[in-house]
Design brief:
Elements (H helix, E strand, L loop, with lengths): L1 H22 L11 H15 L6 E2 L2 E2 L6 H13 L3 H26 L2 H13 L1 H7 L5 H16 L3 H15 L2 H17 L10 H23 L1 H17 L12 H8 L4 H13 L5 H20 L12 H17 L3 H29 L4 H23 L3 H31 L2 H10 L6 E3 L4 H8 L4 E2 L2 H9 L3 E6 H5 L3 H4 L3 E6 L2 E6 L10
Parallel strand pairs: 3-4, 3-5
Antiparallel strand pairs: 1-2, 5-7, 6-7
Helix pairs in contact: 1-4, 1-5, 2-3, 2-20, 3-4, 4-5, 4-6, 4-7, 4-15, 5-15, 5-18, 7-8, 7-9, 8-9, 8-10, 9-14, 13-14, 13-15, 13-16, 14-15, 16-17, 17-18, 19-20
Length: 523
């Protein structure tokens, strides 16, 4: 009975912490360009067309991702109505679910306290919070991938195959790759290759196929090689081999991303990984599996030529479990030196983050500085308090300070900082300005980056703007153009003279061309 009470109390703590973090600000800010509007708009068009097999955007078929996340967002739209809250609702639900999953698994793999600590580490890490509040597929993929891999650890093999299938329906074959490689490497490192005979591979594969393959078969039946070439060829193979964003195609890209994304628990990260690697006791197999899991995800996306911050989210659950295990271990062993070392690392990380906040604040908008100062003071006070409690050898106070301090930091970020910078990252308020100038007749050309958000908030698809379109528009028809401010500033004075600047907001500019203008000095 005491165990049940303890479990329910732990679940209450996790649900309250995760619920506040993931739902308190879910609908308070606009969808951020370009990714969030893509998923929201595709789900909306799925509802409008009543075609739940072939995703589409701008009225055209869209082979970027499998349909599961679109289905979930469409269901949320149906239940809550079209809103930012509904678009992000699936991610928030799976973020909370992921924390519960880590707790339930962690208490069985290690012990009750380690499981609770791991869950709280996960939900208060910066990147997990960020993607739990974002209308993108990464949190959904991470939940199903985590459920599949933890099911393997607990020898629940049908759950492994079932959740792996759902992960493949969320993001594609990369999920199957991760499950296969991580499990195989674990069996090789631990000498348990014979486990394959007990994993219900044949019946499990049939279950996987029954869940994952019908949609792929239907898409091939409806669209043929266009689906194969675009979805598998471009969005999986080509993007792995060739960078979509050349600025991020460096081998060390994910090192700073991980350090910042796992904040504030980055202070424990190196020690937790080292402890997991040198574990020789009853937790050896578990720690080896968690380390392999995190390493495979990190290495795969480091090798991949296309890199995005969100890609490494699937390594956060194993890192959280290792960190929870490590903190529980030093707490049980009263390892004060380890606690003090982590406090010192946290202090240094806080200094770097404060510096980065001021640098970013000065570089974006002046109005951002007051909220940056508040967050800087909070981080400084938190670092001092954690150091003080570490010197006093108060493990409970140190861990609680990390959790509550991060919750307060994130609340300030969402309530005071994000509203100031939202116009920099979302087209929503710009669309309001556009509507005041638009004559409801002339065509609208929109740069690719802003087009999904413009469609979602205006209901107009617009025409994707290219350099060739710009030349043609300047030479002829009445038209409105929406483009990045810095791209407009790069145009020659002769071309700029052909357009009237109607609105400038943050990094966006609205231009109007009347057909009585002609380009000067152009061939």
């Amino acid at each position: 009975m005491m165990i049940n009470k303890k479990v329910w109390f732990s679940l209450l703590i996790i649900l309250c912490t995760a619920g506040i973090l993931m739902f308190a600000f879910l609908g308070t800010h606009p969808l951020m360009d370009p990714d969030e509007p893509v998923y929201a708009e595709t789900a909306r068009e799925m509802l409008q067309s009543q075609d739940f097999i072939s995703p589409r955007i701008y009225g055209d078929f869209w082979y970027d991702k499998p349909p599961l996340y679109y289905w979930l967002v469409a269901a949320a739209f149906k239940f809550f109505g079209m809103s930012e809250f509904a678009a992000r609702f699936p991610s928030a639900v799976f973020a909370v679910g992921g924390a519960v999953l880590v707790y339930v698994s962690g208490r069985k793999l290690f012990n009750e306290r380690a499981g609770l600590l791991a869950a709280l580490v996960l939900v208060t890490s910066l990147e997990y919070f960020y993607l739990g509040n974002a209308a993108v597929t990464d949190m959904t993929l991470t939940f199903f991938l985590t459920a599949a891999l933890l099911a393997f650890l607990h020898r629940q093999y049908y759950l492994l195959f079932g959740f792996a299938a759902l992960a493949v329906l969320t993001k594609g074959p990369v999920a199957l790759f991760f499950c296969g490689v991580i499990i195989l490497l674990y069996q090789v490192f631990t000498g348990n290759v014979k486990m394959l005979k007990t994993m219900k591979v044949v019946s499990g594969s049939l279950l996987f196929a029954a869940i994952a393959l019908p949609w792929y078969a239907a898409m091939y039946s409806f669209h043929g090689m266009a689906f194969i070439d675009t979805f598998l060829g471009f969005h999986n193979v080509t993007r792995f081999l060739q960078p979509e964003h050349t600025a991020g195609a460096v081998w060390y890209y994910y090192i700073p991303v991980l350090i910042l994304g796992f904040f504030p628990w980055s202070a424990f990260l190196a020690q937790a990984l080292f402890t997991g690697l040198k574990e020789k006791g009853e937790y050896y197999n578990t720690c080896v599996f968690l380390v392999i899991w995190a390493a495979v995800v990190f290495m795969f996306f480091s090798i991949s030529q296309t890199k995005l911050v969100s890609y490494i989210l699937p390594m956060y659950p194993p890192l959280a479990l290792l960190t929870g295990y490590y903190f529980d271990k030093i707490w049980a062993g009263q390892q004060y030196r380890a606690l003090n070392a982590a406090a010192a690392i946290f202090g240094m990380a806080a200094v770097f983050l404060i510096t980065g906040l001021f640098y970013a604040g000065a570089g974006v908008v002046v109005e951002l500085l007051p909220s940056v100062k508040i967050m800087a003071v909070l981080l400084a006070l938190l670092a001092v308090f954690i150091l003080f409690q570490s010197v006093r050898h108060n493990f409970r106070a140190v861990f609680t300070a990390h959790v509550l301090g991060m919750m307060l930091f994130l609340a300030l970020l969402m309530a005071h900082t994000l509203p100031v910078i939202a116009p920099e990252f979302s087209v929503k308020s710009f669309v309001d300005e556009f509507n005041q100038h638009y004559d409801r007749q002339a065509p609208v050309y929109v740069e690719k980056f802003y087009r999904p958000g413009f469609l979602y908030y205006s209901g107009m698809a617009g025409i994707e703007l290219s350099r060739e379109d710009l030349q043609a528009v300047a030479a002829g028809e009445n038209a409105y153009l929406i483009m990045k401010k810095n791209n407009y500033e790069k145009l020659s004075p002769e071309i700029q003279a052909q357009f009237q600047v109607l609105v400038v907001q943050a990094d966006k500019v609205l231009l109007f061309h009347e057909n009585n203008y002609r380009i000067l000095g152009e061939d």
